[in-house]
Amino acid sequence: MAHSYTPGLKVSAFTKLRRERKLPLAGDVVVSLGQRVTAETIVARTELPGNVQTVNVANLLGVLPEDVEECLTKPPGSKVDKGEVFAESRSFFGLFRSKCHAPVRGTIESVSKVTGQVLLREEPIPVEVDAYVDGTIAEIHPKSGVTVETQGTFIQGIFGVGGETCGELHVCAPSPGEPLDDRAIGEPCRGKILVGGSYVTTAVLRKAIAHGVKAVVVGGFDDHDLRELLGYDLGVAITGSEEIGITLIVTEGFGSIPMAGRTFELLRSCEGRRVSVSGATQIRAGVLRPEIVAPRLEEAIPRDGGEGSVEEGLKTGDTVRVIRQPYFGRIGRVTALPPELMPLETEAKVRVLEVDFGNGSRTLLPRANVEMIES
Length: 375
Prior knowledge:
This protein has 375 residues and is mainly beta. 9% of the residues lie in helices and 40% in strands.
């Protein structure tokens, strides 16, 4: 039997997740297999080489390039402090001295006898990787990182900006159709993850940033507000590294769109719990979705749960979201999957599906116009 596969969002009340936590280059893993960790636990460390500063010692001291090494007060490989004299020359029988001061704290890396330049390597930059979610170390990748396993509520969004963070979840909107009101934001919101309904403005987000809110989850956000928030036009690259002081996750799309009822109710069921969120998004090859993870480590996972369950493709009864006009953003259930190709207004023939939006009427749509909401 053939299946229809379609891109989808995962919105699950209980599932098992694994997240790889990798260093950018070889380093040390500082946790052990089977260890219980929290989101803030450091699991691996390394050091990035410091920046290189070039100092033209030959010009500063007025000596020949081949004589620069003899002018060093310390040999290559030695450490120097910022402002310390690391090279000097003498003239007129030692009566006059010219000195070179280190512009940064670091190490004398090399000396060029051709150009007379000295390379100073700044101090290494420490890099630490945390666990991101509360869970257990399921795998150790020597000198590279770990895999953290957790279980709980898992919700993917459509789009996000901002990095990884964690905090207590608080639902501010009374219903999925209500926007996030700035009156709901105050000092008690500091360090929390706020959930709105249909919409949030840049002004409200800036107030949230001022009050130390870690992340905001809403149904919709305007694209022109996104440019105002970031200060530049977002390209097609992966998001998640923006330093804007907050993480924003949009669950439905751009504009004022009520959050899906199931998504809103799942988030409301997580009220007061610690959750981890990531705004990282990539819509090209290797799709990456923003996500909210609410661990529930002490509960038994259902038999049909787990991220590794077999995918069966789109079938009747599945919940889908329309991702193109004229029904953009609407959610319904698949009632039929006709096998024959159907003609569009453009005269192209495509596979379609029948969707019930809950009002009794059924609509035929191209299968490419929907995404499956996986539970």
